[in-house]
Specification:
Number of domains: 3
Strand content: 35-45%
Helix content: 10-25%
Distance between the termini: 74 Å
CATH architecture of the largest domain: Alpha-Beta Barrel
Radius of gyration: 25 Å
Number of helices: 5
CATH topology of the largest domain: TIM Barrel
Structural class: mainly beta
Length: 505
Amino acid sequence: MCEDERHLNRRALLVTGAATALTLGSVSFASGAGAEERRTGKETRTVRGTLPTGAPDFVYLPVEIPRGVRELHVAYTYEKPPVPAGTVGNALDIGIFDERGTALGGRGFRGWSGGARTEFFIRADEATPGYIPGPVRAGTWNIALGPYTVAPQGLPYEVTITLTYGAPGATREPVYPPERARGRGRAWYRGDCHLHSWYSDGRRTPAELAALARAAGLDFINSSEHNTHSAHAHWSDVAGDDLLVLLGEEVTTRNGHVLAIGTEPGTFVDWRYRARDNRFGHYARHIHRAGGLVVPAHPHATCVGCNWKFGFGAADAVEVWNGAFSPEDEVAISEWDNALVAAARGGRRWTPAMGNSDAHRDPDPVGRPQTVVLADDLTREAILDGIRSGRSYLTETKSIELTFTATGGKGRHAGIGERLRVAPADPVTVRLDARGVPGASIRFITDQGVLFTSPVVPESGTATAEWRTTASYAAYVRAEVRAPSTTPGVPGPMKALTNPIFLGR
């Protein structure tokens, strides 16, 4: 075993139009083993160093891989010293790029586990979840260290690299889930597009997630692992006629997270940039070219790096409800509603709302909340079109059903995500039919705010609310179903909400 001490050299700091990065000195195996050892044996190198407070977002450790390697194994540890109250401690992520390099775009990307694992391996025939199987080719690979947070004392780390020599196995051709399930024609379909399995920092297998999705009454889900597409080839066995599995990624930058929903199989979306780097637009277009949707996730989450700072110009929808309803979601809904006002008054494109569970492990419920989409069929194309068009509402569980319409004169009518084209003074009737919401109240919200609140829904859980207005008085109307308030002056937790119906020509 060889030990090497690596420290940051400030002069080696690179700023290349993306997040700051630093490349350390290379670790070489090129002359460490004889011919016989190369055929059957192993070699190990250990690297130690310390990252200071203010370290770059990414630190690359180059590893010179010789020919004849069957398996690459990497393990790492780092110290977590106590820190003063109110100060963040050490957290170090890890991933790897192969001999094709670390350039943005991910051509050399071979896997990422963030802080979820302390070791990983890559072989031609298999790899640790989060990593991409394939040959361990000769050349310069780069272990990517991501100092998420660094304590005032610095972040001492140790990385151990082990090469196993021998004949490589065969790399299997990936098999992806179908883009169509057995639908009901044009109907409302329930989905959860933010889920994590053991292919990133979740603890459930795809099979376990699929079983929970079916139990939650879902028709579709989306694979959304942090910063890796490694799960894409592991969903085909659990998809079926009753469950459409879309493929995507949760792109976890240092300035917010974004869901890539329904991209083409094998699509990787890079995350190594901040808002100041002016790179998000490029990768939003990359998601669109891959046929997917761009959906900022939990935009007001308080975790480090989670708050969304890229703007919503490229967004196809926004996740305003993430997991158990919280004050963060309340803020996200308020911001989304403000954007609806600007869009309605300025005649600009509006951004639909989504709700997803972000489930990681027990006891996180799958499908709580869920997005219910009106689609022409249960296909990738139809579901994405329904989400993009805002023909959807959000509910806490499968037991809640909503029907929301607006009607005007001469038989005109519109549903969720549509426009009722009436003259400014024409009377409009807005109606919500709700099921599965005992004890809740129905609210109608316009560009002026909450203009109608129903009595409490009876124990049957079924209620109808109607309200009359005009297009000159309300540019749009949307509905919320709220549980009773627990704090005076503060609305109760959300049970369901709709995307808006716009009024006027």
